[in-house]
Design a protein that fits this description.
- The complex is a heterodimer.
- Chain A is α+β, with helices and mostly antiparallel strands.
- Helices cover 23% and strands 25% of the residues of chain A.
- Chain A is built from 8 helices and 17 strands.
- In chain A, the strands form 2 sheets. In chain A, strands 1, 2, 3, 10, 11, 12, 13, 14, 15, 16 and 17 form an 11-stranded mixed sheet that branches. A 6-stranded antiparallel sheet of chain A has the order 5-4-9-6-7-8.
- In chain A, a hairpin with a 4-residue loop joins strand 6 and strand 7.
- Chain B is an alpha+beta fold.
- Chain B is 27% helix and 25% strand.
- The radius of gyration of chain B is 22 Å and the shape is elongated.
- Chain B starts with a helix and ends in a 20-residue tail after the last helix.
Amino acid sequence: MELKELSEASGVSGCEEEIRKIIQSHIENWVDEIRVDSLGNLTAIKNGTRQSHRVMLAAHMDEVGLMITSIEKDGGLRFSKVGGIDDRVLLSKVVLIGAQKVPGVIGAKPPHLLKKEEKKQVVKVDQMFIDIGASDKEEAEKMVKVGDYATFYTRYEDWGTVVKGKAFDDRAGCAVLMEVLKENFPFTVNGVFTVQEEVGIRGARVAAYRLDPVVAFVLEGTTADDIPKKKDLSPCTVLAKGPALSYMDQTVICDRQLFNFLVSTAEKNRIPFQIKQLPSGGTDGGAIHLTRSGIPVAVISVPCRYIHSPATLLHKEDFSNTVKLIVQALHRFKKEFIK
Amino acid sequence: MDLKKFLKKISEATGISGFEGNVRDIIQEEFRQRADEVWQDNLGNLIALKKGTEEPENRVMLAAHMDEIGLIVTGLEGNGFLRFAPVNGFDIRILPGQEVTIAGIELLKGIIGCRPPHLQTPEEAEKVIALEELFIDTGLPGGEVEKKVKVGDAVSINREVVFLSKNFLAGKALDDRASVAVLVGVLEALQKMKHNWHIYAVATVQEEVGIRGASVCAHGIAPKLAVAVDVTQGDMPGISEITTFPLGKGPTILIGPNVHPRLQELMVQVARHYEIGYQIEPCAGPSGTDASAIQVSREGVPTAVVGIPLRYMHSSVEIIHLLDIERAIKLISAFITRLDEHPEWKQKETFFPGKGKH
């Protein structure tokens, strides 16, 4: 799988060029046509062997990140968050800024100089700054500019059963989609690597309109919440239990027939799967199912721990089972399933 | 010495207070190439002796600590999760989302995890995540982690050194390994200079838990003079400029009760004479560096302190300026050669004839 290359690439919402080029360079070898629309969505078209109807598969290639909003007199950079990031994971991290990937650090006041009350307060993003080692504004302006995007600097690593990296939400989905595109199906597959999911599900909306598919499958990297907690809460998803099927999330109630179809596919092929327990978060499905006169949508996810933070984990078997499930489902899929 | 390369190597090495083995091995290699003898004492302090031409009792001690702040495993949760506690001065607010290395039976990687924003209430996001809610995720399946990690294993933060613009460099544990690089640089410089005093350069242990290594080491060496090198608070927005020092303007020379005034004057003289940039750092009490212990070792040791300005101390993205290190190397090695012009430092006490009759 190309997950390492995908994870380490930059592609904050609105600036997906680098990740798009990487995906394109891989898939052009096994699809019939590639299109990039005006928002930057990358659509791969794989013609069907027998039927002409279209099935859409969507995975978003953008990731959460930061944007430089001003350069201070002392050379420090103020920034905003692009997409949902917990302020509390930002302190003491390394980031890469702009196309040149200028390294910078998010500094933290030394504990020696903190007042007691300060230690109990969350440092808000508007109190933080990125330090690139510039002595003043002029020097900083030679290296970065206002509006530049920044990503976490996190290396991809294989830890045996799990892998570690940034942006598995949704580069895991992208990697699944790339695998699926290697297969041939009787109907036409439109694999869409969407943009701007993390800032309001904007790319998928126009892509779905353009494609007008009979159904859509959304491939995600979703919250795995099987971690120690104070209260006993049901975990959203659990690592190593297989792909997670969503019945709904904050943006879509998934098509029940498609959901059942995926469940029966998994059972028939003995592919482990789990049902995502909490309907949290949003996906491209939110935009797609409301496109034109409505498109039936299913959401399939690779469980990932610590999404939207600098370092996330996923289980290799969950990844391969997700690929297996979607491939098997597509081989079984007939338009008539949707009524 | 390739300064950048060496700094990267020692910054990325593990070595929290009391568990300095890994970083010590790296420093030992460098010491051996530049000193006459290298050995370890009972607490693990690494001592390099570079002989001078004087009688063996004329010893000057140079100290910089090699331990770093870190965490320790306090419990195993099953399913690959570990509970931990800080060993020393951490702001726990920098911990969520950090990558760590656990020194178990083998070196293991982990992440300090926290729940994604999707699953938080707005009120939760306003609260500092308490230590009791933090954990390390090793990604190991249940049962596996117990075989590899036990309570009491050391945990250090993972951070690859990042070279920022020009001479700025960011990484972990530069407090105080930046100063260890100064010691190696001084030993190297002295290979080409004549010096009468015997130099005992020490990479000390357990500074961050109460300056423990330096206190026994100073007793063991019993130096006549000492220079401690440690990092000092660098300037950053939001902190009064009085307590901090700009990076790139040279090392600081400490002035205050922890420093012998004549040694301090000599240090300033040397800086001026060789036109080495420096800053004066007033410090109204014990400096909190190895010098705090060395000065009061045995019958007392005249001590000087040189500081390397460093930003974001005790975070994993501490920043230093390479020129400050190079200048500190020049300053301290020149200072050592100039000691030869001051025979008075060889006296331990000053005697005055009494007026009483026997």
